[in-house]
Amino acid sequence: MIVVKLHTEKPIPPLQLMRLYENVDWWPNRTKDGIRKMLNNSIVVGAWEDKQLVGFCRAVSDGVYRAYIEDVAVLTTHRSQGIGKQLMDQMIKKLQGIEVVSLFCSPKLADYYRSSGFDSTKQTVMHKTKM
Ligand SMILES: CC(C)(COP(=O)(O)OP(=O)(O)OC[C@H]1O[C@@H](n2cnc3c(N)ncnc32)[C@H](O)[C@@H]1OP(=O)(O)O)[C@@H](O)C(=O)NCCC(=O)NCCS
């Protein structure tokens, strides 16, 4: 059985998240300490099968006007069971009342997020990485 919980209800050990990142081929340079800080400073939702973290997403927010959802990921072995949708539903519930909730995704995932109520914009996404 899959259970979806906020990090504040069921804390995610950094090592479990590192395993999930590895499974989806993301963020090989993120460290245990960095991930711990990230978890403490984000709104975080985890999907659990018993003691195994099988899905994750997080958001950063000012709590009023803006929030950004990041790092939506489900283990390859657990996809197409609606876990991604459950993570998004729980996150949107948690972010209820925020004026604009944004996320970045590849064009091929746009329809997936449209089904959770998101629309694409004509804005250009710009990033500045640490120098
Ligand atoms: C995107 C992701 C989180 C979806 O998780 P999930 O638990 O499989 O999602 P759900 O079961 O709720 O929905 C599955 C549906 O999502 C859509 N979908 C999932 N991945 C997709 C992709 N890469 N391209 C297009 N559609 C996709 C499909 O419609 C799929 O339906 P299907 O199972 O009938 O093919 C998961 O595929 C994942 O972890 N991908 C790798 C990381 C990633 O790209 N994350 C998104 C960053 S913005």
For this entry, give a set of tags.
Aminopeptidase, binds coenzyme A, 5 strands, alpha+beta, 4 helices, globular, five-stranded mixed beta sheet, 131 residues
Task: Walk me through what this model shows.
Helix content is 27%, strand content 27%. The chain starts with a strand and ends in a 17-residue tail after the last helix. The protein is of the alpha+beta class and 131 residues long. It contains four helices and five strands. The protein has a five-stranded mixed beta sheet with strand order 1-2-3-4-5. The chain has one domain (2-114): Aminopeptidase. It is globular and about 40 Å long. Coenzyme A is lined by residues 24, 72-74, 79-85, 105, 108-109, 112.
Helix run count = 4
| CATH architecture classification name | 3-Layer(aba) Sandwich
Beta content:
25-35%
Rounded to the nearest angstrom, the distance between the terminal CA atoms is: 44 Å
- Kindly provide the name of the CATH class: Alpha Beta
User: How many β-strand stretches?
Assistant: 5
Determine the mean pLDDT: 97
CATH superfamily: Gcn5-related N-acetyltransferase (GNAT)
| CATH T-level fold name | Aminopeptidase
How helical, in percent, are the residues?
Answer: 25-40%
The secondary-structure class comes to: alpha+beta
